[in-house]
Amino acid sequence: MSDLLTVRDLRVTFSLRREGAMPWASPTLLRAVNGVDFTLRAGETLGIVGESGCGKSTLARALIGLVPATGQAEWIDGRDLLNLTPRQMMAYRQDIQMVFQDPLASLNPRMTVGQIIAEPLVTHRPDLPRAEIRERVRAMMEKVGLLPNQINRYPHEFSGGQCQRIGIARALIVEPRLVICDEPVSALDVSIQAQVINLLIRLQKELGLSLIFIAHDLSVVKHVSDRVMVLYLGKVMELASASDLYGSPQHPYTQALLSAVPVPDPTVEAARTIVPLKGDLPSPMNPPSGCVFRTRCPRAEARCAAEVPALAGGDHAVACHFPGPLTEAEIARAREVA
Amino acid sequence: MVIDQQKMQSLSARMVEAEVKGRSPWADARRRFFRNRAAMLGLTILVLVTLFALFGGAFAQWSNEELDFSVMGRVAELGAPSLANGHYFGTDNLGRDLYARTVQGTQISLMVGVVGAAIAVIVGTLYGATAGYIGGRTDQIMMRAVDILMSIPYMFVLILLLVMFGRSMSMLFLGIGLISWLDMSRIVRGQTLSLKNREFVEAARATGVSSFRIIIRHIVPNLLGVVAVYATLLVPLMILTESFISFLGLGVQEPLTSWGALISEGAGTMNYGTLWQLAFPLFFFVITLFGFFFVGDGLRDALDPKER
Prior knowledge:
The complex is a heterodimer. Chain A is α/β, with parallel strands linked by helices. Chain A has helices at 56-63, 86-93, 113-124, 130-143, 160-172, 190-207, 218-224, 242-247, 252-259, 266-271, 302-306, 328-337; strands at residues 3-16, 28-41, 45-49, 70-75, 96-99, 178-182, 210-214, 227-232, 235-241, 317-318. In chain A, strand 6, helix 6 and strand 7 (210-214) form a beta-alpha-beta unit. In chain A, helix 3 runs parallel beside helix 5 (160-172), helix 4 (130-143) crosses helix 5 and helix 5 (160-172) runs parallel beside helix 6. The model of chain A has no long low-confidence stretch (mean pLDDT 87). By secondary structure, chain B is an all-alpha fold. Chain B has a single domain (29-72, 79-307), classed as MetI-like (MetI-like fold), CATH 1.10.3720. Chain B contains twelve helices and no strands. The interface between A and B is medium-sized, with 38 and 28 residues.
């Protein structure tokens, strides 16, 4: 399988100006995404997980060009997406589409569903006649499970799940190769989540799409993803195939994260061990030295504060000086502190 | 299980229907507006006043320039409203037919109000939406320019303008147009700032829609509710401004007239028993302002049902 997208050392830095600060005062830097590397193969689904504020959404927005980023994102044809002029980027915007978190808010309330879905097509293929566009919109609506005769309706006349289907239709109408789903189901209730996820999986198979699937629901990510990337404070902690990552997590953070997933079985739920983490996510304006996770890690040692661990290990990559399953003693220590 | 035959049939009929018509947010707002009694009353008044301005002249027995020599000099006794001599609203001090003058004044005042508000809507909306959407330094410069213009006492400038360049309709439009869009641009900018971070605008940006198209297709249609409400409240404000200027004697020039000028004349002769000279123009002035305010209120309620 060829690599559709190779991301190297992607960084997104926001400069924040304190309220009422003097104009010459140097702004504080917030490193939302702090050197992320990964590859995305054609046709695969890459899940991205992490707690709130770890840079998942910012990473997605950087890839699609909504926020300025530095580093490299090499597309399959060898062009670096992050260093293109807006005009050059236009050609690639057709290949990369996005599905947003809030289904209703991502649709313009003053436009009909037909206009909303057609917008990317009208933007990228201005040569198409109106009738042809309408025909394609109807076909796409059918494909995502909407009745094509609803084409003249407005977003507020649809339910949340239907709105997300409209969002998916809008993303797929220009036949992209990569769809970035930024928490596409977290605003939906559970039964609708399943429908939308199954729709995404089906469409991915039919159309041969690559997906970047961002979520904070670990079980959803496990269900859809071929590989999973764990982010913490703008850095990659662990990147492995879904079965490896969920079966034998190596990074202490991943283990803590997975231990917090509730199991819908009372006996298993009662027996499982939770690894609590002490404290809160450190501020990305002032991240810890060395390994960013060390302030909350039950296994942290002096070396962790001094050296930044590199992401190493081939197919199951871990960014930790001391990878491996947590021992009983370490779990007990974590419990004590927390 | 018992299936309701009729319901199933209506459902299946709906599924095969060629295209279901959607109900736009505008259509919803229209329904709410038409159900609002006060707003409908206001709208009726405005329609009637507009009809009066457009076709009232056809019923006049006298033109607005003719002097009625039979009443001249004895206006207080002979110039009162009467159907017999054709002066439905009486005559003014010079013996001109007040009905014809009121029709003319209504035309001028409505025109000033509507043109002033139209300038505000077009210039203010585009200016505010551009500043808000582009943001950053452009926004800073554009809005500071508005602040500076606002800090100038406009009535003073308007009076100076009319004194220096002579009193004319075009000067009046220019003066009112210069100041009317400032508030509008601020309101629109504020709304744009909150709109531009909404996900649907991001979605459009992500797919590569041009900034101009985003402003026209995504930002402006979502602003129009606020703009429409503010514009209906701006029309009476413009009429008031013009009336005030005319009341001071600086507005429209004879033989043209406006509500402000008529009211000013009427107020001057209030003590000589010719109260109708004040009453008729004032009546039209007041009901029109009421009409606009009721319609504005109704529009706000209709377009923004959550804010009630």
